[in-house]
Write a structure and sequence with these properties.
The protein is mainly alpha-helical. Helix content is about 80%, strand content about 0%. It starts with 10 loop residues before the first helix and ends with a helix.
Length: about 220
């Protein structure tokens, strides 16, 4: 959506400007979690259910804000939304979208970059706290995740300019290398917390590059 109204040369920067706002959620999320746990217990839920309850409420608020104020639809503003188009079933929409992606030389690469970046980042990041707990570094895991999240979001404006300067395909390749290096460093870290910090930070940066480059590439291709 961030890219819908952006000209081609500003598409990556437009996506980056929205991604960087995620830093606020990434910071406030962990800060609010203890309070959300207490609220969950107070209303008779397991303490770990509280944060999920609030996550659902926040997502519903986001949906309401977008539905109410994102008017008119950005695609309608730039003339890419046909007001006479007929609605189709979700299964048909998926099939139509898949066909559009297949028929574009760059769309599959953009989609693959987004999916691979997300998969690699989540797979390593979610296992890191358990890994550090097993090695007696449980207290450090929160700080590692904080550094990781900073890599994911805080540098988005710089990544957007980088993608614009070097090109989307080259940026996807760079993101893949950074993700790979971060994964290898984290895997080989073992009992060395400093390497875990470095690996998770690189993993966040790699995800950022892959997401922004892949998103702008997919949007431009279709």
């Amino acid at each position: 959506v961030a890219a819908d109204l952006a000209p081609e040369h500003d598409r990556a920067k437009a996506i980056a400007s929205v991604v960087v706002v995620g830093t606020l959620g990434a910071v406030f999320g962990p800060v609010l979690a203890p309070w959300e746990k207490r609220v969950g217990v107070a209303i008779g839920l397991d303490e770990f259910i509280g944060p999920f309850l609030f996550a659902a409420l926040f997502l519903l608020c986001s949906m309401a804000i977008i539905s109410r104020w994102l008017r008119p639809d950005p695609l309608q503003v730039n003339g890419q939304l046909d007001p006479q188009a007929q609605r189709v079933r979700p299964s048909q929409q998926v099939r139509i979208s898949a066909g559009v992606i297949r028929n574009s030389p760059l769309a599959p690469l953009g989609l693959a970059a987004m999916v691979a970046s997300q998969t690699a980042m989540v797979a390593v990041m979610t296992m890191t706290p358990s890994h550090m707990k097993d090695h007696g570094n449980a207290d450090l895991s929160a700080y590692v995740i904080a550094v990781h999240i900073a890599g994911m979001y805080a540098f988005a404006p710089f990544v957007g300019r980088f993608v614009t300067r070097v090109g989307q395909v080259q940026a996807v390749m760079v993101g893949a290398v950074v993700l790979g290096v971060g994964t290898v460093v984290t895997t080989l870290a073992g009992y060395v917390p400093a390497l875990v910090f470095a690996g998770l930070f690189l993993l966040g940066i790699g995800w950022n590059i892959g997401l922004i480059a892949g998103s702008s590439m997919l949007t431009g291709a279709v």
